[in-house]
Amino acid sequence: MRKLSIVFLVVLISCMFSYAETFEHKDAGISIWFPDSWKIDTEEEGILMADAPGEEAFAQLMVLEDAETMDAAIDALVQELDPIIKDFKLTTEGEEVESNGLKFFIVEGDGKVDGVKMGVSLALIATQKDSICMMVMFCPEVFYKKYEKSFTKIVQSIKAI
C-alpha cells in the first residue's frame, strides 16, 4: 500500500510540473519555472514578471546591472525596492544556500505597497555568467501563506542554462 502511495505521489508531482512552464532569462543565463496558471510578462527588456491568478501574488526576476559582488547586489536591491515597497523590514536573517549549482542569498520581510501590507521573499542569485540577479516575490499578507510553497518551488527551479 505504501509503494502505491509513493507511486501516486510521484505521478501527481510529474503531472503538476507538466502543466507548468519554464522560461529562460538569457541575459542572466538562467531558467525559471512558474505554475501554468501564472501570467508571465517578458515584454520589458531584461525583466521577467509573473502574476498569480487574480493577481494575488507577484514575482519579478531581473539582472542587477551595477552589482559585481553580493554586497553591491544588496545595496542595489535596496535601491530597486525602496520606490516599490515602503517600510520594508526583514523578518528573517539572510541565508546563503546553493541550489542547482548556483549561489543564492535569500531573505524574507514585509512592507507596504500602495498602503497594503505585503509579505516579501527576496533572492539574490549569483549566475554562471558572472552577473547577479534579483528575484522578488510578494503578495498581500493575507495571501502569503497560500503562496509561500509556490515561492519556494519557483526559487528552487532556477537553473543555469
Structure explained in plain terms:
- By secondary structure, the chain is an alpha+beta fold.
- 28% of the residues lie in helices and 43% in strands.
- It has a single domain (21-160), classed as Protein Transport Mog1p, Chain A (3-Layer(aba) Sandwich).
- The strands form two sheets. Strands 3, 4, 5, 6, 7, 8, 9 and 10 form an eight-stranded antiparallel sheet that branches.
- Mean pLDDT is 81; it is low at 1-19.
Q: Which CATH class is shown?
A: Alpha Beta
**CATH topology title:** Protein Transport Mog1p, Chain A
User: What is the 3D form?
Assistant: globular
CATH homology superfamily name: Mog1/PsbP, alpha/beta/alpha sandwich
Gyration radius, rounded: 16 Å
Strand and helix order:
HEEEEEHEEEEEHE
Residue share in helix: 25-40%
Total strands = 11
Number of domains: 1
Give the count of helical stretches: 3
Query: What are the segments in which pLDDT stays under 50 over at least 5 consecutive residues?
Result: 1-19
Overall mean pLDDT: 81
Q: Kindly name the structural category.
A: alpha+beta
Largest sheet: 8 strands, antiparallel
What would CATH call the architecture? 3-Layer(aba) Sandwich
Gap from first CA to last CA: 40 Å
Beta content: 35-45%
